[in-house]
Amino acid sequence: MVIFLNFTYKEAVDYIEEIPKFTSKNKLEHTRECLRRLGDPQKNFRVIHVAGTNGKGSVCAFLTSVLREAGYSCGLFTSPHLVTINERFQINEEVIGNQAFVSAFQKVKQLSDELVEEGSYHPTYFEFLFLMGMVIFAEAGVEFVTLETGLGGRLDATNSIEDPLLCVITSISLDHQQYLGDTVSQIAGEKAGIIKPGIPVVYDGNSKEAAEVIARHAQQLHSPAFAVTEEFCSLHTSGTQGLTFSVDIPYYRGQVFSIPFIARYQMMNSALALKALEILSVRLTFTMDAVHRGLARTRWQGRMEMVLPRVVVDGAHNEDGVARFVETACHFQQDYSITLLFSAVDDKDYRDMIREMCEKISFAHVITTSVGGYRAVPAEELAEIFRELGCGGAEAYDSVSQAFEAARSRQGNGMLFCVGSLYLVGAIKEYLRTIEGETVKAD
Questions:
Q1: Which tens digits make up the pLDDT trace of 280-298?
Q2: What is the DSSP string of 245-310?
Q3: pTM of the predicted model as reported, rounded to 2 decimal places
Q4: What is the DSSP letter of 171?
């Protein structure tokens, strides 16, 4: 394809951010046609396809890290991004540079222009980024791509991949009901839509309701299905540096693994990755040492991530995510005072989120702030809910930077958890990068 366009990085990003204003959801046939016209870049590598409500990004990160330690070249496609849009594309665990971003953008933009001229459909925001990712990874020559779905699974643009090496479905709970259904069973049906005939699927079997739907779907497609539950995991140690644990999977008998995450739910995500790797071991070559190193060196932004000593950011923003945060905070409040920095957007059940936190965690301090643009909930409104539920000293700051500095000043020798929205996580990480940049300049 000859490229006649000439965009700067900023112009490319600005164009992509405007896409939601002039497109609507397209059918998978449209995405497959776009791939065909781009030269079927997805046929240049093997795909591990991951869906789920919570944990899918972490599972992608675990798998990618182990494959990298085993010597394979890997692409990683995830969403959403926290600070820069480039974060959605990683090659060998490094975020792509602006030049690679613009190069892929121009190819997809030219295709989009051709489609519009023909009276066809412009790719959606997520579809555009997915197509860019396939171009980026093909041009980089990676051997594998770990591919995270955007929303759902069955109708997701990533489901245009017709022959993945393996599918993984993480925990399923109520989220995005307006798109995916009002029950866990309905949502599980959407997620199970990524399963392909005869392709193995590893899935979270903790919810009987979801597990039955996934198992039935796999059986109909004659796909080998492997359920993993929390009973597979045995915690050995837990602290601010991470966890050690073992799994009840014969392939890993006698092995004790370490992960650099403080949340116990990451054992379950690790177990899903470990089961997937066991299945892949029939076709791929990697040592047990590579598995250990890969898990221990995994990095994943915004999910119980320690960004400063005893300062944790977590994008928990739905029922299951909040329950997992509460579980983690309850564990650490035995040894540390807990300060909370909280924000949420208005399409989430933030009142119920706050109620669950206040019922189970004794906060030393609560700070609220406002994030999310037009979906933002005023900081004072959030603080007032905390006060009504027993946190009388809750303070509100409109600025994330002011809120974060206030929370840090209240933290003392305790732990600070910044929770409630990925927008909050992104804003804090951007603020920390700004501080770091100013420090470098000062030096």
A1: 999 998 999 999 999 999 9
A2: EEE--GGGTT--EEES---THHHHHHHHHHHHHHHHTTTS---HHHHHHHHHT---TTSSEEEETT
A3: 0.86
A4: B
pLDDT reading at 211 higher than 80 = yes
- Name the phi and psi angles at 343, rounded to 5: -155, 160
Work out whether strand 338-342 and strand 415-419 pair parallel, antiparallel, or are unpaired.
Answer: parallel
- Tens digit of each residue's pLDDT (9 = 90 or more) over 4-53: 568 999 999 999 999 976 666 778 999 999 999 999 999 999 999 999 98
pLDDT tens digits for range 43-97? 999 999 999 988 899 999 999 999 999 999 999 999 888 889 999 999 999 999 9
Cα–Cα distance, 309 to 322 (Å, whole number): 22
Asked if 210 and 67 count as a contact pair (C-beta separation under 8 A), the reply is: no
DSSP, collapsed to helix, strand or coil, labels residue 145 as strand
Q: Torsions phi, psi of 231, nearest 5?
A: -65, -15
CA distance 30 to 243: 44
Peptide bond into 80 cis (omega under 30): yes
Q: In what order do the strands lie in the sheet with 225-228?
A: 94-95, 89-91, 74-77, 144-148, 46-51, 166-169, 201-204, 225-228
